[in-house]
Amino acid sequence: MTNIINGKEISASVKERIRLETEKLFNETGVKPGLAVIIVGDDPASRIYVNNKKKACSDIGFNSWEYALPAETTEAELLELINKLNNDNSVHGILCQLPLPKHLDEKTVIDAIDPKKDVDAFHPVNVGKIMIGDYDFLPCTPAGVMELIHSTGVSVSGKKCVVVGRSNIVGKPMAMLLLHESGTVTICHSRTKDLAAECREADILVVATGVAKMVNGDMVKEGAVVIDVGMDRDENGKLCGDVDFDSVAPKASFITPVPGGVGPMTIAMLMSNTLTACKIAICK
Ligand code: GUN
To answer: Which of 11, 57, 166, 225 is disulfide-compatible with 268, CB 3.0–4.6 A?
Structure first.
């Protein structure tokens, strides 16, 4: 039988736990976690993501500040803002929404964020800490995927895990988190010789390619746990994932829908990282 993993419900319960912890923290210390969100330019998708992040902050009881900068902002101006936020004790997390306009170098911008406030876990210091399994923050999407896998009750240990996609934000850290839980991990990408054969080996299959419905039922083993990180549009402009849900669901033991699977988890994990950053700052 196929079980559909309800990311909306799981994310709501993670956010409720964070809300209660935040209330307790405030009662004990008088400190509220604070997240600064920077958006440069007017990318419509980024605008929706930023609005959702601000709403989650307000629902949970965090302070949040939005810095909406014009598309022609210079790198020096953006770095100056980040420097100011790095030195502001009421700001515990800094998130600069990607992608940035072409003239701004994402690597330089990420490097400028204080690693202790890097709630995306994109800074090289945090990426390195993840590699050695000694981290304060996990990148939000892979961390959310792990929560969804845990919700199935399926243990990763000893399982054949296949990650399709090798981005710095999802594929690579995803593979590392599965490895930390003793999965046997294969990373597939656009040059993989026989993608279907690799995917068919997977007990746990995580797909993050950005290609609509790329993985179909013929590519999935009976009983696999299938996690779809995609957020694409099909030929009719309808929202869909990287997995062809209709052909894969009958074979999977557990599968995430799009929307309502991984997407809501990403914001819940961002809130979790911001609370962690705040607690670390308090303990300093
Ligand atoms: N753009 C798309 N996803 C993300 C994310 O998780 N963090 C940031 N900063 N930008 C994004």
So the answer is: 11
273 lines ligand 1 (CB under 6 A): no
pLDDT on residue 119: 98
Instruction: Please check whether residue 135 lies inside any domain of the structure.
Output: no
Give the number of other CB atoms < 10 A from CB of residue 232.
17
Residue 179 included in any domain: yes
Residue indicated by tokens 């988890």: 265
The tokens of 50 are what? 């930023």
User: In this structure, are 147 and 259 located in the same domain?
Assistant: yes
CATH number at residue 259: 3.40.50.720
Same domain, 93 and 40: yes
Cα 85 from Cα 93, distance rounded (Å): 9
- Among protein residues, the one with the nearest Cα to ligand 1's atom 11 is 98
Q: Retrieve residue 52's tokens.
A: 């959702």
Query: What residues of the chain score a pLDDT lower than 70?
Result: none
Say if residue 98 is in the same domain as residue 148.
Answer: no
Nearest one of 45, 118, 54, 55 to 85, comparing CA atoms: 118
Active-site residue (options: 116, 117, 120, 228) = 120
**How far apart are alpha carbons 111 and 104 in whole angstroms?**
13
Based on the structure, what is the number of domains in the chain? 2
Q: What spacing in Å lies between the alpha carbon of 29 and ligand 1's midpoint?
A: 30
Asked, for residue 54, whether it belongs to a domain, the answer is yes
Predicted TM-score (pTM) of the model is 0.96
Domain holding 146, by residue range, is 140-263
| pLDDT given for residue 284 in this prediction | 73
- SS3 state at 123: coil
Query: Could you tell me which residues come within 8 angstroms of residue 206 by beta carbon, excluding any fewer than 6 positions away?
Result: 145, 161, 162, 163, 164, 174, 178, 227, 229
97 is catalytic: yes
Q: Are residues 153 and 206 in the same domain?
A: yes
Question: Exposed, middle or buried, 157 (CB in 10 Å: 0-12/13-18/19+)?
Answer: exposed
